[in-house]
Every structure is written in C-alpha cells, then in structure tokens.
C-alpha cells in the first residue's frame, strides 16, 4: 500500500524547494499541480472527503510510487485539517519545514506587498498586525506576519495525532544540504543515495526595498525568543542557525 505524505507548512519557509526535492525522487510522487495548492483537507471533516475524487484530481498520473505526497501550507494552522487527514490517513508522514521566524515574517511582508495585498510600511504593518489579522480568510491571511512564527502552538495538534510520523526540518540546515536531504530520504525509507538535480537552491532576491530595519529585526528577535526556546526544548531541536536574523533577510523563499 502506498504511503501518504503531507507538507503542511510553514508558509514562506522554502516548502516549494522541499516539494521539488521530494518530487524528483523516483519513488515519490507529489500532487500536481503545485499551484494552486490542493488544500483538499482544509476545514473539512472526514465525512466530507471523497478520496476517489482526491486521487483522481491530484494523483491521476501517479504510478507505482512508494509515496504519494501533497503540499498545502495552510494546513499547519488548521487543527481540523490535522484531524481530517488523520481520519483518512492515520499512518501519514507529516513534514513541517521551519524557518527563522524573523526572516519568515519579513519574507511574508515582501510577498504581501509584491502581490498587492499590503500598502503599509513594514514597521506599521507589524505594529498593526493584531487589528488586521482577521481581515482575510485564515488560509490566506497576508497580515499574519508574527503569528505564523509561533511554531510550537501550530505543531502540537499534529504531533498529538501523528506522533513520530511528524518530521520537523530546519530550512537553514536543510536547503542545499545534500546530507540532510539524503537523511530525509532515508527516514522516508526510499533510496537515500539519490541526488536531486534541484538540491542546490537559488533563493530569489526581492525587489522590495525596506531601508534600514535593523531595529525592527532586534524587536522581532526579542518577540520570538520565548517561542523559539519553547520550540527548541519541546522538540529537541538545534536552532543555532536562527541566532542572527540579519543575514539574508532580503530573500523571498516560498
């Protein structure tokens, strides 16, 4: 029986790269198209799900692959999605790619500006997040800059249901690191010697000028410090690569 895999988050953390790394592997088939994301299990319960429709729509061209996977990064914020996926595929593998939350927030802001959803300066946008966060549906929510970086609160429902089948990856340690990629292949029980063509990723440089935001970065580092500490301790993670947020904050990985 084919194993199921879901990349559920986090947004603006390099999940498209992760999707490519998996999809290139000959034993893994990822749902097509990648955009728009399937979001098939978003805010539904198992009784509403037609798995035949799901497979026909997104896995029509899948052969005898060992793993069938999907990437929908809105899932991580939706506890009902976790329950729905669990009810349909209790043995599914859940992948969560985490990025320094300061850099993730800045990338999120740039994305919102580039797509015409944000008109405020970055300082004002972050300051007014609490009063604007519900202006859009939760699956879009272009103003959840800081909220989405509180990773531990979003991960917990998934680990409660899927236990050790939840695999947490750190973007800064995973991207372009063939050893980490092959370690993931090994954990997925597929050929770990495979080298994907895309593994040397090139991040896109954003054209949105922010000026000097070193002060804002320091504020964000302080804001996320307790959340990062909780994440590190609860899930036994090494977040040393997140200590300095000033590096590469102009990049716009999705």
UniProtKB/TrEMBL annotation:
- Tell me yes or no: is Transferase among this UniProt entry's keywords: yes
* InterPro entries, alphabetized: NST/OST, P-loop_NTPase
Gene3D superfamilies, alphabetized: P-loop containing nucleotide triphosphate hydrolases
A GO term, aspect molecular function: sulfotransferase activity
Q: Which domain of life is it from?
A: Bacteria
What keywords were assigned to this record? Transferase
Q: What protein name does the entry list?
A: Sulfotransferase family protein
């Amino acid at each position: 029986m084919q194993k199921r895999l879901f990349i559920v988050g986090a947004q603006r953390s390099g999940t498209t790269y992760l999707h490519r790394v998996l999809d290139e592997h000959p034993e893994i088939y990822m749902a097509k198209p990648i955009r728009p994301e399937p979001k098939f299990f978003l805010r539904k319960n198992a009784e509403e799900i037609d798995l035949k429709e799901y497979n026909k729509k997104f896995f029509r061209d899948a052969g005898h692959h060992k793993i069938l996977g999907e990437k929908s990064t809105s899932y991580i914020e939706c506890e009902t999605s976790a329950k729905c996926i669990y009810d349909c595929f209790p043995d599914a593998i859940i992948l969560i790619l985490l990025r320094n939350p300061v850099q993730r927030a800045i990338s999120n802001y740039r994305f919102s500006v580039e797509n015409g959803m944000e008109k405020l300066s970055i300082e004002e946008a972050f300051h007014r997040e609490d009063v604007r966060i519900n202006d859009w549906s939760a699956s879009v929510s272009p103003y959840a800059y800081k909220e989405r970086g509180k990773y531990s609160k979003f991960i917990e429902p998934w680990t409660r249901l899927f236990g050790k089948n939840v695999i947490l990856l750190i973007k800064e340690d995973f991207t372009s690191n063939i050893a980490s990629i092959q370690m993931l292949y090994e954990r997925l029980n597929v050929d770990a010697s495979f080298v994907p063509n895309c593994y040397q990723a090139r991040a896109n440089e954003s054209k949105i000028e922010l000026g000097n935001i070193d002060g804002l970065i320091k504020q964000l580092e302080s804001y996320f410090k307790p959340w990062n500490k909780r994440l590190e301790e609860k899930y036994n993670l090494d977040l040393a690569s997140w200590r300095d947020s000033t590096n590469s904050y102009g990049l716009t990985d999705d």
